[in-house]
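Page 37, continued from 36.
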């Protein structure tokens, strides 16, 4: 399998000084996601946890549920990796109908989407009785620090984790792309049989509407991020019943939607 990192030479410059050396950098490769012999999307991604990536991508993009995946085979090619995914006849029929509606090229941000209506389609509503303390939100973010080996080596990738009360972080995935990291996490949870409705997704990135859509399709009731959301992401999270917590840093976080799932405590001040 392709290496996830490479050590490359660099020249460090500072006033009056030039220092040769090397730096560890993350690899990114072209990863094709092919369903029943037809490529649906090509993403630039970190070449790790690719089975998780394919499984999570199929669900969060609305292509297929895990039980509709009959086989999944990563195939290395001279130009990248082809994830060959074979679906049941029912799932393939839905995907074929979607392909027939496509009128133009696929973009990497909203894969396989050809209209404004589909891009902004509301995700399924999230229903869960999960409750977290503000301290839990901050602990979840802080815990990611100890589960990012690729970031520690390169300082150039995102992470997505899943936190559960009494267990902490039960899964973490990294990737050069924030969407890819979330898809890999979704796939890991699905393949491990972890119920997403029982915890919170934690991100090292900002929150855009597609990240909200993916979390809602996964069924996670709480999304916690270290950076800010977009205004549209907040509106979509509100409509979907998703609790959106952002700017979770140090001893403070901000709750934007459905605050009933988050309880303040003396260890954290929630605006």
């Amino acid at each position: 399998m392709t290496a996830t990192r490479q050590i490359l030479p660099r020249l460090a410059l500072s006033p009056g000084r030039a220092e040769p050396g090397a730096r560890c950098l993350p690899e990114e490769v072209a990863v094709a996601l092919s369903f029943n012999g037809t490529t649906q999307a090509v993403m630039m991604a970190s070449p790790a946890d690719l089975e998780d990536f394919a499984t999570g991508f199929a669900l969060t993009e609305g292509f297929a549920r895990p039980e509709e995946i009959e086989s999944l085979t990563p195939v290395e090619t001279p130009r990248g990796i082809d994830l060959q995914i074979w679906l049941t006849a029912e799932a393939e029929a839905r995907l074929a109908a979607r392909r027939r509606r496509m009128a133009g090229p696929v973009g990497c941000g909203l894969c396989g989407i050809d209209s404004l209506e589909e891009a902004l389609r509301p995700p399924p509503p999230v229903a869960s009785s999960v409750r977290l303390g503000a301290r839990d939100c901050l602990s979840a973010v802080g815990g990611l620090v100890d589960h990012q080996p690729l970031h520690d080596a390169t300082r150039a990738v995102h992470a997505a984790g899943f936190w559960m009360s009494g267990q902490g972080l039960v899964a973490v995935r990294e990737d050069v792309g924030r969407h890819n990291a979330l898809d890999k996490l979704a796939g890991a949870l699905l393949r491990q049989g972890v119920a997403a409705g029982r915890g919170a997704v934690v991100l090292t990135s900002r929150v855009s509407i597609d990240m909200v859509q993916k979390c809602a399709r996964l069924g996670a009731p709480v999304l916690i991020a270290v950076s800010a959301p977009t205004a549209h992401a907040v509106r979509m999270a509100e409509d979907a019943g998703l609790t959106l917590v952002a700017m979770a840093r140090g001893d403070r976080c901000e709750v934007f939607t459905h605050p009933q799932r988050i309880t303040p405590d003396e260890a954290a001040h929630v605006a």
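The radius of gyration is 19 Å. Flag for discussion at group meeting. The helical segments are 50-60, 89-101, 116-119, 134-144, 149-154, 178-192, 209-218, 231-240.
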